Amino acid sequence: MDIQTYLQEKKGIIDLALEGYLPKEGEFTGTLHRAIRYSLFASGKRIRPILAIAAYEAAGGCGDVVLPFACAIEMIHTYSLIHDDLPSMDNDDYRRGKPTCHKVFGEAIAILAGDALLTEAFNLMTKQHLSDSECKDGLLLLNLVNEVAWAAGLSGMVAGQVVDIESEGKEVDLPTLEYLHTHKTGKMILASIRVGARLGEADNEMLKRITRYGERIGLAFQIADDILNVEGKAEKLGKSIGTDRLKKKATYPSLLGLEESKRRATELVQLALDALSPFGPEANPLREIAAFIVKRDY
Description:
The model has no long low-confidence stretch (mean pLDDT 92). This protein has a single domain, classed as Farnesyl Diphosphate Synthase (Orthogonal Bundle), CATH 1.10.600. The two termini are 20 Å apart. The chain has a two-stranded antiparallel sheet with strand order 1-2. By secondary structure, it is mainly α.
């Protein structure tokens, strides 16, 4: 399969769904609406919602039931980027080739745009009037929302962000670095995959294997990001490179060096692929996304 074609096709589906799910201008303040749209439709890769769809299809799912959850996960991801860019966090001026949300709309509106996206994500996952896109199993819905909340909150992404902030300018050991990456980035990637698989009615063994896949590519994704911050191209990434070194961030290249970081990312991808060995061609998108993660230049 052509992974670029697949990614573009799924991105188009997600973008169209987000347009439909997002409240229209006039339903809330225009400034907030513009700030949310500015960040949500800023040419993101949509990797997390695409992984949710790919896992859903690999588990045998068909139809649109996964879309509200996939889009909610992208809303949570976008909120995290808006807040991550703030002066009190990473103080970044550019994201996806454009000035960051707070640079355009001010810090207060950027904070509120992130808050609104996070809240709207849970509103979207629990809406019961989505007809064809509705999750009919109430207990499953509750469990899925709980899983996303766990991955996004103090046991997951937020915890990783705290360790990231507290590690700046300090020497950290490998277990701390791995905790940072698996929580700040990996937990939401894993949740995306597990939510998709569970909506696709994966059996226990299938879910275990897809979970192992998700754990490995979640860490590989962040290692690849660390590497791109060293040797990527700013015009491709849509943001400045070399910022991790300037801010004395805890990264794999800073701790292990560039070549060992690349080796570890490649090894993690192979382990992820091994976890999918019992699956047939229905899991090919998951396989190709794993390979894309370490080969990408953006």
